[in-house]
Amino acid sequence: MRIAIFSDIHGNMPALEAVLDDIHKQHVDAVYCLGDLVGYAPFPNEVTNRIRREHIPTIIGNYDDGVGFDRDACGCAYREADERMRGQQSLEWTKARVTAENKAFLRSLSPEIRIEVDGKRVLLVHGSPRRMNEYLFEDRPDSSFQRLADSSNADVIVFGHTHKPYTKRIGDVWFVNVGSVGKPKDGNWHACYAILDVTADPPASFMRVPYDVAAVARAIRESELPDEFAADLEHGGTAPVAAQHERSHPSPDPAVTPN
Questions:
Q1: Residue 186 sits in which domain range?
Q2: Which CATH number fits the domain that encloses residue 96?
Q3: Is 256 part of any domain?
Q4: What's the order of all strands across the beta sheet hosting 120-124?
Q5: What is the pLDDT of residues 188-233, one digit of tens each?
Q6: Could you tell me the CA-to-CA distances from 196 to 9, 26, 167 in Å, in that order?
Q7: pTM of the prediction?
Q8: How many domains does the chain fold into?
Q9: Residue 113 belongs to a domain
């Protein structure tokens, strides 16, 4: 079986549409979403409606939890005061605009999904098997991954949340981070998702899909959301501070941007 898995759309409807179109061309056997449908970009209802319409099994992300339950925080680990301020602005903006029906849908999402694929036990979560907002970065000590492997009752653990794709094998357990559809942070602005094939080594391939990033950046700058979110999209989450504060910074040219 080949399974398409994506995560962290964060209100970026053009990126989601491009990914779903690409998935359709791959002729996969199933599709799953690991959550964080909303936040940071101006299309939270459009994204949520599309996921609902496609009947894609979806995990609840920390941002979905924050918006769906109208919480005071999104469970994000902001490092700087100005980053925290922008994050709070995004949360309040999103809570004020997501419909009651879509908030109810976000609240209804599961914290995990377990499936069996070609004889392998696969666990789908948003952040980690322990917490939806735990960041499993690739450089975390192997001992930490080993504890998760020992306690998760799974052969493959698939997650998102860090917005950086990777695969890592600890003993007999594979960890797969599928990256981010709508807000990559690995320097590549293309939308990212994974195709899981547990018979392969490694068991996931990462697909990078171009989309109209300029349109989303423009929509952010025309909304009440911080301009820095637009620069983050244009630079794959690695925009320099000076560029983040330059309102007219141009979008990348898909023809010359490296994959």
A1: 3-244
A2: 3.60.21.10
A3: no
A4: 113-117, 120-124, 156-159, 173-177, 166-170
A5: 999 999 999 999 999 999 999 999 999 999 999 999 999 999 999 9
A6: 19, 12, 11
A7: 0.92
A8: 1
A9: yes
